[in-house]
Amino acid sequence: MQISIPGIRVPQTFVRLSRTASICLILLICTSCGDYYRPVALPLVPSQPNPAATNIAVVITGNGSDNPGASSTIDVSGDTVDSQATVGLQPVAAALAINGTSVFVANSGEDSVSQFAPNVPTPVTTISLPAGSAPDFVASAESFHVYIANHGSGTGNGSVSVIATSNNVVINTVATGGSPVMIAETPNAQKVYVVNGAGSGASPSILSINTVDFTTNPPILPSGGAWNTPIWAVVRSDSQRAYVLDKGAGTVTAIDTSFDTVVGSTNSVGVGADFMSYDPNLNRIYVTNPATNSFIALNAGLDTLPVIGKSITISSPISVTALVDGSRVYVASAALSGTAPSQTVASSVTVINAGSLTVKNTISLASVPAATGCPSQNWSELSMAASPDNSRVFVGNCDAGNTAIIQTSNDALVVTIPAPPGAFSPPATKPTVQRPVFVLTGV
Predict the structure, then answer these.
(1) Which residue of 275, 277, 297, 307 has the smallest Cβ count within 10 Å?
(2) 3-state DSSP call for residue 261?
(3) Which phi and psi (to 5°) does residue 338 adopt?
(4) Domain locations in the chain?
(5) Cβ–Cβ under 8 Å, residues 154 and 86
(6) pLDDT at res. 34
(7) Which of 276, 282, 278, 388 has the alpha carbon at shortest distance from 326?
């Protein structure tokens, strides 16, 4: 058969090949429509970020002697309050435990400890302490226990209560033979050092508690044979040394934690020094002395604790914190002027370059009337802490009733966050603010 197209002759062979190709194409289409598995491409959804704050600051505020205080958790990245929890009467100190997932607050006005998650305001667990305990400090460097310094404990001699974090129960109360004003646990969680102040006939003393069985070791005596007014303690990051600040003697003393003996020579920082902070990055101790208007840096690499450079003059320094990277140090100060009851407090933060120990600049915070209930020249008047990511420094200003947030990229005041509303205080027509007394940071 010959197919003819006007003007064109198509060969028979071409026609047969075209028919064969058409049949093959139809068979291929039918086969592809059969009941065969064909892979389906699904989009891969990446893991979503955790909405919880990765760096936080926790600010404890008091609300007078008859009203519950509060705890405010600030998101470091947003400079905003994420949550607020209600704690007990007259909270004074707090600690983050269990890798920063739990807050423990000492309530001195009701012999209790409040426990809660920092980003979840409820529930708040109340842990009762022995009657008359008057807790005044909290410490923990581990996940299993939290230690509470009880200044009173009702019998005249103070104690340290041990709380098991697994069930929030007091499992032991250790008598310290004095009135604890501060405690510090070694990073290796083997010992808790207790600073006993004078009170109820007991002499000031320093001793340690063994965390394995909660027994006490013999009191540690300084080279002079007796402590004057020990007030603060810090522990070196390698857990080999503890350091005690004696306000009355004006000294910082190094203690060998293996044997609980004083080592080296006691270094003088001036009578009246009442706060110190340890910088693990540079292995230094920073001391503030409001009596001599000075800031001192000590070399913790040597047991003689030599002064690094010269002391820096700062008017009425109260507390100090250092950035985690060791680049800068921040010193909070409060200058009191006028006469009672019309006194004014002007607070500020001095920024110091850690490498050269020179003043970088001074940041003014507030000038306000001195608030009733805020201690003068005490670390809780201007409690401060640096965020773990080095981006912020938080200053709880008791007199101003707010928390100042300093941005470290330019060392400038970013914002002040008001404390939660306080109780009505006639003749006030609106609630007063609560008063920040303790600041801590974590992740």
Answers:
(1) 307
(2) strand
(3) 85, -175
(4) 57-90+115-121+170-442
(5) no
(6) 47
(7) 282
Q: What distance in Å separates the CA atoms of residue 346 and residue 431, rounded to the nearest whole number? A: 24
* Structure token pair of residue 93: 């100190």
The one-letter amino acid at 257: T
- Is pTM beyond 0.70? Reply is yes
For residue 91, give both structure tokens.
């909270």
Q: How far apart are CA 392 and CA 386, in angstroms?
A: 6
**Residue 195 has which token pair?**
């600073």
Rg (the chain; Cα; Å): 32
CB 377 within 8 A of CB 365: no
Task: Kindly report the length of the chain.
Answer: 443
Backbone angles phi, psi at 25, to 5 degrees: -65, -40
Residues 156-200 have pLDDT tens digits of: 569 999 999 999 999 999 999 899 999 999 999 999 999 998 766
Query: DSSP E strands: which ranges in 129-240?
Result: 135-139, 145-150, 159-164, 169-175, 179-185, 191-197, 205-210, 230-235
Q: For the residues 24-30, what does the mean pLDDT come to?
A: 48
The closest of 386, 397, 402, 273 to 334, measured between CA atoms, is 397
Tokens of 439: 């600041």
> 16 φ, ψ to 5°?
-65, -40
Q: Give the integer Cα–Cα distance in Å for 315 and 203.
A: 32
Q: For residue 250, what are the CA distances in angstroms to 140, 247, 254?
A: 27, 5, 14
Residue 135 CA to residue 75 CA, distance in Å, equals 28
Closest CA to 245 of 218, 208, 206: 206
Torsion of CA 149, 151, 157, 158, to 10 degrees: -10
The two tokens of residue 365 are: 């915070």
* Closest alpha carbon to 246 in 236, 237, 255, 238: 255
Which segment, 53-67, 78-92, 193-207, is predicted with the most confidence on average?
A: 78-92
The helix or strand, by DSSP H or E, that contains position 17, with its residue range, turns out to be helix 12-32
Element housing 73 (H / E): strand 68-75
At the second CATH level, the architecture of 57-90+115-121+170-442 is 7 Propeller (2.130)
- Are 246 and 230 in contact by the 8 Å Cβ rule? The answer is yes
User: Could you give the 3-state DSSP secondary structure of residue 232?
Assistant: strand
Which residues contact residue 58 at a Cβ distance below 8 angstroms, ignoring those fewer than 6 apart? 71, 72, 73, 74, 94, 96, 103, 118, 439, 440, 441, 442
